[in-house]
Specification:
Helix content is 77%, strand content 0%. With 288 residues, it is an all-alpha fold.
Amino acid sequence: MSFLILSILILVFSCYIRALRWKYILTNNRFKNIHLLFGSVMVGYFGNNVLPFRLGEILRSYSATFYCNISFTQAFGSVVLERIMDLGFVIIMFFLILPWFPIELNNITFLVSLISVLIISFFLLIGLTDYFGFLTKIKDLSVFKNKLTKKLINFLEVFLKSIISIKNSEFNLHIILLSVILWIFYYLATYFVLQSFSLDLGFISIWLIIIISSLAIGIPAMPGAIGTYEAGVKFAMVSLIGVASEKALAFAIVSHAASFIPFTFLGAIYFFLGSVKLDDLKNKDVIV
């Protein structure tokens, strides 16, 4: 039980690290109160755990809009960038451990490679759009002069700028360092839950569980990734590592609960005590 409690404490503190990294990603809003950003992070987790399709990311962005006096588009762009950074770290770790894994992971390698191509294509598209000023040229066309398309283009402009701004940030070293610390915390949290089941897995196997579970969580599906997380972890432990099916499923359920329960509880507190109200949404332009 002590290992499980330690894992929960590490996971909760990792949310503070995530909030601190978010502060540095918001390059034009560097002096934000970390407690408020932490609250927005927890509101996002609460939303992801009670709403389907990872809609908590939108809830988190709205929360930051009112907590930190930035536009929804800026906040949402920073959240998208943060999630892409997390995915990038997962991809890097996968290819680092791949040579040392005892069995071939052809299907997973293909999936990770495909995701890598999509991420590179995404940033390439953003870079070309910014370099050639496509949105500015489109905005000047008469067909895009109506109110709806103007608002859409303004949204895209601010969204792209919020992502591109990271290349000129003076805090890139802070962001990289905090990202490494964040994933070390995830490794330790996974390790301690494994210890609570007396599962003594190696360094490579633990990272494989983290990588597969991270990919499973990223799938927009049921609230809290219920089902997809357990399926991903069980697949990794049974098919790739060789853990008994019953023990793998028990670990998957408990490790999921170690984050799901405290994140939902803390997120609910921040949501109900200081979240966005419908009246606020009506009275404030949160898009740009």
